[in-house]
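Renewal narrative, Specific Aim 1. Our central claim is that a sequence can be written position by position from structural information alone. The example that follows is taken directly from our test logs and has not been curated for this report. It begins with the structure tokens describing the chain, in the order in which they were read.
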């Protein structure tokens, strides 16, 4: 099987990746601020995208805000990534997530070892990939080069 598709140049890939990162963190802060307001928390923490140290309990409102913000951000990011890159949403989703883990480690000066955070991150990534790829598939369905495989 040979894959027939257009290769993107490095400049396009990097600009798409930068745009996806801006979308991801902008959404994270917007959704986080709405969730902080909805849960009526007193102090908005600017480290919300990077906070994995909050005690993961059901009664901890800050943890629930962080969790809800993370999941909603990943859900919405997949939809917007499909509009930006149109193809290979899974690739950009994985790359943004890996960069997010690295940035989180740098900001918090510690590698995240909390399994609840990793579980939330993994399920969010799954949502992002599924939503983004479905949107990309249905919007690019008329494009013949979207998923053309042939036996050579």
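The sequence written for that structure reads:
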């Amino acid at each position: 099987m040979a894959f027939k598709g257009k290769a993107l140049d490095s400049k396009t890939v990097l600009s798409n990746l930068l745009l996806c990162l801006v979308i991801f963190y902008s959404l994270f802060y917007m959704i986080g601020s709405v969730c902080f307001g909805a849960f009526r928390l007193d102090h908005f923490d600017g480290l919300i995208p990077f906070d994995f140290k909050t005690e993961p309990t059901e009664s901890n409102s800050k943890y629930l805000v962080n969790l809800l913000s993370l999941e909603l951000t990943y859900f919405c990011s997949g939809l917007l990534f499909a509009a930006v890159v149109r193809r290979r949403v899974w690739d950009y989703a994985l790359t943004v997530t890996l960069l997010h883990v690295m940035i989180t480690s740098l900001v918090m000066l510690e590698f995240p070892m909390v399994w609840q955070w990793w579980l939330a991150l993994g399920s969010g990534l799954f949502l992002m990939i599924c939503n983004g790829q479905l949107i990309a598939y249905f919007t690019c369905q008329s494009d013949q080069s979207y998923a053309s495989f042939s036996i050579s």
